[in-house]
Amino acid sequence: MLNCKEIEAVFFDLDDTLYDQLSPFQLALEYCQIEASSINIEALFKRVRHFSDVLWKLHTKGQISLEALRVERLTNAFKDFEHNITTEQALAIQERYELEQRQIHAFPGVIEMIKDLQKSKSVVGILTNGPVNHQMNKIIALKLDQVIPAELIFISNGIGIAKPDKRIFEYVDRQIQIEPDKCCYIGDTWENDIAPSIEAGWNCIWFNHRNREAETTHTPNKIITDYRGVFS
């Protein structure tokens, strides 16, 4: 169970936790005229996220470039559905995807919840993987920079540690000077958000709006599919 009274800090993952990442992906496919009518787009998107997480580990070790990661996560995901796309098509999808992400909106209730939390908690922030400028562009598009101070936005490439390495949570602990058992993390992916935050001693809430399956025996404090009454 989650003892809300003991929580002093709440941090959010960004992608597909604070906004719907599927929508710009689907719009990018439509714009690039990728024929995928026989594929369930949400299932395809989940595979893209899966390969993104797998390849991100190689990227952080310097074994694959960011561009190659973005190409391979798309080509590999399409292959899982017996559909081949070219490198050029993958790059075109990625380019349009980034443009569409400038038009994103926060999930209903997110901004209001953050403001409510700030009234009762000492710290509310974001902890996300990715390139600093790329992630900040999305944060600005969501207008989250207007409610969360810059010193509470932690982006992996700016730190030098990335999820699922639990040390990124330990880094945040040191920066905010709050004990891990008084921190709570809200994220959508099991490997990057739930398991490592628990390993770091944090409380965690699984935002499982895509109906994913748990991948380990870790137990989140709470499972939600929307942001109504999360801390009530």
Key attributes of the depicted protein:
2 domains, Rossmann fold, alpha/beta, about 230 residues, 6 strands
Please describe what this structure looks like.
The chain has helices at 22-31, 41-60, 66-79, 87-100, 110-120, 132-141, 156-159, 167-176, 190-199, and strands at residues 9-12, 123-128, 153-155, 183-187, 203-207, 222-224. By secondary structure, it is of the alpha/beta class. It folds into two domains: 4-20 and 104-224, 3-Layer(aba) Sandwich (Rossmann fold); 22-103. β2, α6 (132-141) and β3 (153-155) form a beta-alpha-beta unit. It is globular. The mean pLDDT is 94.
Topology:
Blueprint: E1 9-12, H1 22-31, H2 41-60, H3 66-79, H4 87-100, H5 110-120, E2 123-128, H6 132-141, E3 153-155, H7 156-159, H8 167-176, E4 183-187, H9 190-199, E5 203-207, E6 222-224
Parallel strand pairs: 1-2, 1-4, 2-3, 4-5, 5-6
Helix pairs in contact: 1-4, 2-3, 3-4
Report how far the terminal alpha carbons are from each other: 13 Å
Helix content: 40-55%
Classify the fold: give the CATH topology of the largest domain: Rossmann fold
Q: Supply the number of helical segments.
A: 9
Backbone structural class: alpha/beta
The arrangement of helices and strands along the chain is: EHHHHHEHEHHEHEE
Secondary-structure arrangement, i.e. CATH architecture of the largest domain: 3-Layer(aba) Sandwich
Q: Find the CATH superfamily of the largest domain.
A: HAD superfamily/HAD-like
Sheet with the most strands: spatial strand order: 3-2-1-4-5-6
- Into which percentage range does the β-strand content fall? 5-15%
Total tally of structural domains: 2
Please tell me how large the radius of gyration is: 17 Å
The largest β sheet comes out as: 6 strands, parallel
Q: Mean of residue pLDDT?
A: 94
CATH class of the largest domain: Alpha Beta
